[in-house]
Design brief:
alpha+beta; Double Stranded RNA Binding Domain; four-stranded mixed β-sheet; 4 strands; elongated
């Protein structure tokens, strides 16, 4: 998976990058078909904001989180992306595998 982390009016420190990459493993465990994640960290007066766009097969998921701390906003964005990824995965997967299995077995 490609991971791009940029900063807007803020310098991306190695600690911020390490925190974001450690949270990235959670998304890859949910779905292996994720192709890329681009994240922009920005500072707006006293608001620390993080915007992220996750690309998967057939969808682009976007989340934004703002808070008083950059680490908290990164965590908020990854929580939102994980929830969206779960919903997307549930839409894509077959919802009635038992009915399909019975139809094949009993004709």
């Amino acid at each position: 998976m490609q991971f791009q982390l940029t900063g807007q009016q803020i310098e991306v420190t190695p600690a911020l990058r390490a925190h974001a990459t450690s949270r990235l493993d959670r998304l890859t465990r949910l779905d292996e078909k994720c192709t890329g994640l681009s994240m922009v960290l920005s500072l707006d007066k006293l608001q620390h904001c993080a915007d992220a766009t996750l690309t998967t097969n057939g969808a682009a998921l976007h989340a934004q989180g703002c808070g008083a701390d950059m680490y908290a906003s990164i965590d908020l964005v990854f929580d939102k992306l994980a929830a969206q990824l779960r919903r997307h995965r549930d839409k894509v997967t077959d919802k009635h595998p038992q009915e399909a299995r019975d139809a094949r077995q009993f004709g």
